[in-house]
């Protein structure tokens, strides 16, 4: 029976990371910062040092908990000729390095974080460009807020989100229980202890070739990559998982690199890349798996360019006015529009569905929207309740307290005080309906802005 061909990482003596090999290689192709996170002894440092050896890089390995500024730049001394300061370099200083590993970054002293910030993000130190520096890597134990009772990493502090957001990919190292029998034997073997990885020409050539293709495609990124990332980021932000615009660009770069490495955009890789692109784990943040799965499903369908793609975009958008824009600009016909309206009204909360219907119904009745008669009726059923609100509001106070009006009245009055004209009348009508229906709005101002955004969009695009 022939021996299975080793993966790139297995050739380096690295085991347990096969699932993440495309993710790790993508970081080499993009040359964007990468971080490994895991418990002690899971091979984080060994992997990153082995990569530098296999690629033949001028490498520096710093322990962030012990590092001083002099370790990075050397010892300053006067430059008599230029009346300035030079730095006396040592074999450990960062000048000339092609790759840098910042180990134990979560144990870094606060006063050093700003210096690491510029090193990681800008490839600069003291404002001086590090022209040779290509790869910036880091490793850390789980943050102190994200640990089980089995092992405590006192001193491994949550990372500053601003620093974490400068890293592109976050790979979580697997522990013993997650290794296969073959991987356990390979990890346990004492043959590799203290052994340096030889320069791996196959890996070097592969990365160089893919890097060239990656750079060629950067200026004209495939639409599937852009559709996947924009839809996923929109869906996650809609689920209250903040993803910065900078993070979106890093995600697109990483996904493009994975596409180059594998020859096509593959769904399994896209889902794995999505999870590895989010920095929240570095400060102990927990993103529910079902939230990531839902964002991926919407994004993958969008990237696949199926006929239903516009519906995925509609549901991914968190704001009502953005949903309306998708309906107006991308809905292929009234039958599809009617079905989408029915699904949307059923999936949104009662108050958001009512606000959407209230804003859209006049345009729908005039035939200005790409929906059929059933869709118009669905909107009308909700909108008519808001338009014809007429009821007596009663409430109960605690104890012997007597209030002159409903507890929600003051909040409504504050919101209405800043509005004028038709917008104020529209908001008053909707808020009155909420009071009658005993709906407590957590962010009434945001919902009113979305409702007004729908009205403004209709006036602009369909001449209502």
TrEMBL record:
<dbReference type="GO" id="GO:0005524">
    <property type="term" value="F:ATP binding"/>
</dbReference>
<dbReference type="InterPro" id="IPR011704">
    <property type="entry name" value="ATPase_dyneun-rel_AAA"/>
</dbReference>
<dbReference type="InterPro" id="IPR027417">
    <property type="entry name" value="P-loop_NTPase"/>
</dbReference>
<dbReference type="Pfam" id="PF07728">
    <property type="entry name" value="AAA_5"/>
</dbReference>
<protein>
    <recommendedName>
        <fullName>ATPase dynein-related AAA domain-containing protein</fullName>
    </recommendedName>
</protein>
<feature type="domain" description="ATPase dynein-related AAA">
    <location>
        <begin position="34"/>
        <end position="134"/>
    </location>
</feature>
<dbReference type="GO" id="GO:0016887">
    <property type="term" value="F:ATP hydrolysis activity"/>
</dbReference>
<dbReference type="InterPro" id="IPR050764">
    <property type="entry name" value="CbbQ/NirQ/NorQ/GpvN"/>
</dbReference>
């Amino acid at each position: 029976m022939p021996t299975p061909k080793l993966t790139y990482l297995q050739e380096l003596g690295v085991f347990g990371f096969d699932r993440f090999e495309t993710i790790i290689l993508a970081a080499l192709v993009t040359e964007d910062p990468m971080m490994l996170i895991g418990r002690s002894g899971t091979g984080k440092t060994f992997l990153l040092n082995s990569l530098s050896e296999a690629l033949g890089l001028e490498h520096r390995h710093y322990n962030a908990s012990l590092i001083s500024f002099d370790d990075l730049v050397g010892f300053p001394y006067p430059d008599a000729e230029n009346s300035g300061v030079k730095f006396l370099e040592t074999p450990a200083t960062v000048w000339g390095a092609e790759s840098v590993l910042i180990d134990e970054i979560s144990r870094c002293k606060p006063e050093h974080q700003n210096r690491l910030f510029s090193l990681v993000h800008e490839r600069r130190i003291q404002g001086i460009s590090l022209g040779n520096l290509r790869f910036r890597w880091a490793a850390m134990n789980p943050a102190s807020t994200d640990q089980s009772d089995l092992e405590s990493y006192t001193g491994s502090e949550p990372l500053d989100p601003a620093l974490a957001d400068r890293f592109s990919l976050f790979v979580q190292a697997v522990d013993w229980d997650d290794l296969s029998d073959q991987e356990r034997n390979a990890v346990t073997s004492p043959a590799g202890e203290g052994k340096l990885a030889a320069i791996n020409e196959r890996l070097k050539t592969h990365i160089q070739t893919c890097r060239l293709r990656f750079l060629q495609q950067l200026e004209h990124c495939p639409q599937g990559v852009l559709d996947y990332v924009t839809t996923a980021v929109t869906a996650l932000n809609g689920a209250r998982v903040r993803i910065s615009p900078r993070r979106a660009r890093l995600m697109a770069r990483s996904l493009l690199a994975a596409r180059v490495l594998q020859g096509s955009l593959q769904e399994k890789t896209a889902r794995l890349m999505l999870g590895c692109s989010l920095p929240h784990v570095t400060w102990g943040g927990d993103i529910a798996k079902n939230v990531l799965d839902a964002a991926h499903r919407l994004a993958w369908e969008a990237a696949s360019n199926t006929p239903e793609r516009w519906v995925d975009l509609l549901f991914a958008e968190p704001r009502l006015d953005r949903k309306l824009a998708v309906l107006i600009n991308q809905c292929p016909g009234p039958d599809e529009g009617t079905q989408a309206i029915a699904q949307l009204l059923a999936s949104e909360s009662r108050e958001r569905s009512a606000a959407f219907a209230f804003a859209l119904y006049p345009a729908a009745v005039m035939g200005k929207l790409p929906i059929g008669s059933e869709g118009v009726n669905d909107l009308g059923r909700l909108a008519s309740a808001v338009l014809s609100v007429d009821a007596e509001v009663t409430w109960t106070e605690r104890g012997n307290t007597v209030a002159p009006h409903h507890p929600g009245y003051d909040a409504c009055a504050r919101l209405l005080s800043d509005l004028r004209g038709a917008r104020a009348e529209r908001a008053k009508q909707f808020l009155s309906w909420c009071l009658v229906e005993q709906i407590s709005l957590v962010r009434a101002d945001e919902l009113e802005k979305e409702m007004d955004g729908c009205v403004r969009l209709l006036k602009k695009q369909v001449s209502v």
